[in-house]
Amino acid sequence: PPPRRSALGEEDPVKMAIGALHHGRAVLKTAVADGGITDESWVAGLRGWFESFVEGLASGPPALRAEQLAALARAGVVSFVGPDPRFSVDRRSGRFTATSPWVNGPPVAAKTMVEALAPANRVSVNDSPLLEQLLADGMVRPRLMMTAEGAPVQATGLDVTPHPYRPVAANGSVTDGLYVLGLQLSATQWGTAIAAEALQTGGPTYPSAQRTLRDADEIAQAILGR
After folding, report:
1. Burial class of 52 by CB neighbour count within 10 A (0 to 12, 13 to 18, 19+)
2. Tell me, what's the pLDDT at 206?
3. Domain with 168 in it
4. What is the side-by-side strand order in the sheet with 95-99?
5. Which residue from 28, 73, 155, 204 could staple onto 187, CB 3.0 to 4.6 Å apart?
6. Pair (126, 204) in one structural domain
7. In the chain, how many domains are there?
8. What is d(CA 189, CA 32) in angstroms, rounded to the nearest whole number?
9. Do 140 and 45 reside in the same domain of the chain?
10. Pick from 16, 19, 7: which is nearest to 63 by CA?
């Protein structure tokens, strides 16, 4: 059989285009951070379509894992529901069901369903007792962004001051001695899910790869009064 594109490297233009997208994410992380683009561009462009586009093409498991999953599918061990799955419960049979609007055929039914996908990050919907209490006490608040139509949209991350990123309270004040680091900066930085990203061999050498480590160092210096 012909070699997989993932193994062709520089010999395959599609593989190279996907690699360019992957490297471009590192540049973009630095460009958009800390107000590098407007709220409108962040909501409609970066998070509206580009994020899912680039993550769908330039992210995912290693090629070996994809080949192993394909082998399980060929052996009949694993099957796929299809794109945009819809999940429900058939109370008469006591089973979970799953369907896809893109696939013909009866629903897939099972006695057990395991949610293996990490939930999307959103500070207003979380199960962290600490974050829930901070929100309830008004010590932090989600950031609001304005769309091109002038409508406020609640962002996924907290509202913070410029780094070292102190949270803005519900009344607009800033709480002393409290700082935000990592995932909950997702309304100020893009790509916070992989925080202290290690440099890859032969990969991009952009500052975004160590951004969270830099943020942590600045917070430590602020706490120590340096």
Report:
1. exposed
2. 45
3. 5-64+119-224
4. 86-90, 95-99, 108-110
5. 155
6. yes
7. 2
8. 7
9. yes
10. 7
